[in-house]
Amino acid sequence: MKTLNRRIILGIFILLIIVIIFYFENQKIAPEIAEKTVKDILLKAGKYPQSPELTGISGYINSKEGIKISDFRGKVVLIDFWTYSCINCIRTLPHLTDWNEKYRDMGLVIIGVHTPEFKFEKNIENVKEAMERHGINYIVVQDNDYATWSAFKNRFWPRKYLIDKDGFIRYDHVGEGAYEETERKIQELLAETGIDVIDMKISEIEDKTPKFGRRTPELYSGYDFALSRGQNIGNLEGIQPDQTITYSLPNNFNKDVIYLDGTWKANNDNLEAMGDSLIILSFTASSANIVADSLGDIEMEVLIGDSYISKEQAGSDIEFKDGRSFVKITEPRLYNLFDGEYGDYKLTLKVKEGFSFNAFTFG
């Protein structure tokens, strides 16, 4: 009996020794790990800027309210500044949605910061419709007052930042393109979190960034946007803020300039047709788009040269009926009018009362 008791006591004693050794070993290792982490962060702090926080957000989509970038420490965060009527932003979306599907479960968090260019883009329901149209399932926040835009000292749509697991900005890309470079950086930062990405292939989604030379620049119609950029319509009367003017077409037309026929009201971010009217624009590009809206659903007829547009040159929003080519203007967004060979073209749009447009963009 005494022998059994001694064995039990000895066993308990040995177990206690093991527990104590384990405890002190962990006490010894943990500070070393912490010290290494601190050193890594201090090294980063000397090389990379700390990410600002989301601020002044007026709406949250696909997330709870009040999220912060710092909520995702330990993960990789991609911040994408965009606005839903921007053609440059639209061309980046297939890449973003692909990365979201591909890397979301590995620790990539995409946050689209929607900073509106035009008034209608401040409406969160319009943003939700655009997200559904483009298959966006990641987080989007409404930066209606440009607070987060300013915190990041941003000036461009689109712009992508990659933030590492410790909250440092490790990558910054302005505009379209560089998709392979961006994805490789995503993989690099995920690897730093301990994720194995060795076998992950780079996506092969087509890069639709225009690669030819000269093309017509983005043309604005609202006086706050056009006049501040040195732009104006080609009619002699020009844009007169908050005035309603009946325009007539001149005999000669310059390239890359908007011309109007009919009665139009000049608003701060658009021109609004007050009756049946025309828009004429000679452009150089392989694609043409208009950011437009209407008070009620209308059909805007589209001509290239003196004829209705052909099916070979028709943009994705063109419809055909009874020999006519037209676009149904049903909501405020970007409409694709022309998609053809790169070259010089004359565009004519026939519109009705209640139609308004904010800008033309080209690719």
Q: What is the name of the CATH class of the largest domain?
A: Mainly Beta
What percent strand? 25-35%
Helix/strand order: HEEHEHEHEEHEHEEEEEEEEEE
Detail the poorly predicted runs.
Answer: 15-30
Q: In which range does the helix fraction lie?
A: 25-40%
Structural class: alpha+beta
Gross morphology: elongated
> Nearest-angstrom radius of gyration?
28 Å
CATH T-level topology of the largest domain: Jelly Rolls
* Count of individual domains: 2
Q: Kindly state the mean pLDDT as a whole number?
A: 92
Helix run count: 6
Could you name the key traits of this structure?
363 residues, alpha+beta, Glutaredoxin, Jelly Rolls, 2 domains, eleven-stranded antiparallel beta sheet, six-stranded mixed beta sheet, 6 helices, 27% helix, elongated
Summarize the structure.
The protein is 27% helix and 31% strand. The protein is α+β, with helices and mostly antiparallel strands. The strands form two sheets. Strands 7, 8, 9, 10, 11, 12, 13, 14, 15, 16 and 17 form an eleven-stranded antiparallel sheet that branches.
List the helices and strands and how they pair.
Blueprint: H1 2-47, E1 59-61, E2 76-82, H2 87-103, E3 108-114, H3 124-134, E4 139-142, H4 147-151, E5 159-163, E6 169-174, H5 179-192, E7 219-220, H6 223-226, E8 244-247, E9 258-266, E10 271-273, E11 277-294, E12 298-304, E13 307-308, E14 319-321, E15 324-329, E16 333-351, E17 355-362
Parallel strand pairs: 2-3, 3-4
Antiparallel strand pairs: 1-4, 2-5, 5-6, 7-17, 8-9, 9-10, 9-11, 10-17, 11-16, 11-17, 12-13, 12-15, 12-16, 14-15
